[in-house]
Each structure stands twice: as structure tokens, then as C-alpha cells.
Amino acid sequence: MDGDVDIPGGIQQALSGFLDRQEERLAALGPELTEQVQAARDATSGGKRLRPSFCYWGFRAAGGDPAQPILTAAASLEMLHVSALVHDDVMDSSDVRRGAPAAHRRFEALQRERAEKSGHGGDPVGFGIGAAILLGDLCLIWADELLHTSGFDAAALARAEQYFDAVRVEVTAGQYLDLLAQASGESDMDLALRVLRYKSATYTVERPLHVGAALAGADSRLISALSGYGLPLGEAFQLRDDLLGVFGDPAVTGKPAGDDLREGKRTVLIAYAIDHASEVQLSEFDRLFGRPDLDDDEIQLLREILQDSRAVQACEDLITNRTEDALYALDEAPLADDASRKALTDLAIAATSRSV
């Protein structure tokens, strides 16, 4: 994307170095804590690195000098993302994340192995959940520490803090709204759209752009212009993610096919289908949706209802429209250079047309 920087490589280097220091720090408290650090290492390996990428290009869009430690600061958003994923998997009882056992399943297996060797021990399931919650908490703490020890001066960090604070509040609020939507047993389009915005749109695109731009000293006009690009693009990204959660290839997405249907995720896709399905379709949908034991044939039936009710096409149209809105806003934005404009254009396309 940009010849002078390897964003994924730089982010991985920053995360690995940071976790090396944390391992030394925690080893003084007890060797058992290496399990938490190793779980964090595995969880921060791979991924799309979208949030750090938007942070980096927000920085460049505001005229930031790439010689500054922007990749280390941007890595804080990847650590925040891991915290959210670990907690999200606990709340959803997900078994798999990125093709490997989710953190709580990992810790559960560790405890079960210890119990089998010793002949005694507590509940492995409860241990796994508790250990994963603590891992998510550690990653949330570490995200803040990564930003504040990145090497930027106090003035730059003070500018960025308001946006970093905002993204942590918004993603937590979005998680609660998502939890509430699932617990309600009803699909409300307004609530689904608010979950879409606060759990994903602001968290994935808008606020990372703001953090990077603020570190570079962006004025309010650029911050506003980045919102005009970031909000619709973040919504388009999550709409694509919701479609992949139902129709994606497990070998590519790293999650079982139809997991969102088993978990009963009350997304915009689902809200639209319920609003537009026939009575017969709705009866079948209500019977199956949210059942954790759905088999492949039942998953396929739910997919057909989503197709036939035109919910899939409606989401595709929303993705197209929101992406166009984002690119139009980008064209009008007062960016510092053409490289950042091209990179943000490429990111918009990659985020909304992806297969993973």
C-alpha cells in the first residue's frame, strides 16, 4: 500500500517487543503468568490490522512524520481489539477465533490437562471463562500503556487521549447494546443500527483515524472530514462482516459456518429479514434462529430465508451506498498528501469487498 512502510510488520514488532517486557514484569509475580502472556502473544498474531492501519493513515493525512513512533502508538488499537475479541468470545460462548480455540477454550483445555495429570482440580469451564476475562482486562490495560509509552510527547498524547478514551467507551457501550439485543429475543432495526455504529463503525475506522490525526496535531476541520469518511465506511465494514458471519467459508474466515445464526446475533441483516419475511418464513426463522445445535441443513434453510426476503441484497445495497458516501467524503477531505488519500481509498475497498 505504501512503499516506505510495512504496517503489519511494524505492528507485530511493536506488540512482540511490548509483550516481551510484560513477560519479564509478570515473571516476577510468578511463572504461572506466562500462560496469560503467551495467550496474548497468540491472540495478537495475525489479523487484518485494520485499526492500526487507519490510525497510521490518519496520522499521515494530518501531515505526521512517519519517522515518529506512530506504528507503536497504532499497535495500542490492535491490543484494544484483542481485548474486545476475548471478551466477545466469552459472551458469545464462541469456540473458535481466527482458526484456533477462543481464549476461554484455550484456558479450559489447559486446566483440564492439569486436572487430569494431578487427579484433582476445579471446574475447567469456569476456569477458562475467568482466565479469559482477566486476559481481556490485561489487554485493555496494556492498550493504554502501549499508547502512553509509545514515544510521543505529552502534548501529542493529550490530544489523542480524548479519542482513545472515546473508542473504549463506545465499543464497551456497543457490546452492551449487542448483548441487550440478543437477550431481548427481538430484532429492532434501530437497535441493530446503533450496535452497528458503536460496536464497529466508530471503533474500527473513525476513532483510529482520529487517534492518528490527533497525534499529528490535526485541526477540527480534518477531524470532522475523517468522520465523514470513517463512519459510513465503518458501517459498511460491519455489514460485510455480518454477511460473512452467515455465508463465509470457515476455511477462510476462521470461524464455523453460520456461527452468528447459532448465537442469535441480532444484526441489521436479521432485522431486515424479520421485517420482510413471509409468515411461513418467519415461523421457520423463529423456530431455528439462535439454536446452538443447528445442523448444516438448518443453517442452509436460514440462509435461504435471508436470501428470499431480500435481506442479503438490502445489506449489499447499504454496503455500496455507505462506501460511496465514504469515498465522496474522502475526495472532499483536506488531507496532507496524495499518498494518504490513495491509501485510505484502497483501505475502503479492501474493508468492504473482503472475503475474510
From TrEMBL:
State whether keyword Ribonucleoprotein applies. Answer: no
Q: Name one GO biological process term.
A: isoprenoid biosynthetic process
What keywords appear on the UniProt entry? Magnesium, Metal-binding, Transferase
Keyword presence, Membrane: no
Per UniProt, what is one GO molecular function of this protein?
prenyltransferase activity
What cofactors are annotated for this protein? Mg(2+)
Coiled-coil parts of chain: none
Q: Which family does it belong to?
A: Belongs to the FPP/GGPP synthase family.
Q: What is this protein called?
A: Geranylgeranyl diphosphate synthase type I
Q: Which organism is it from?
A: Kribbella pratensis
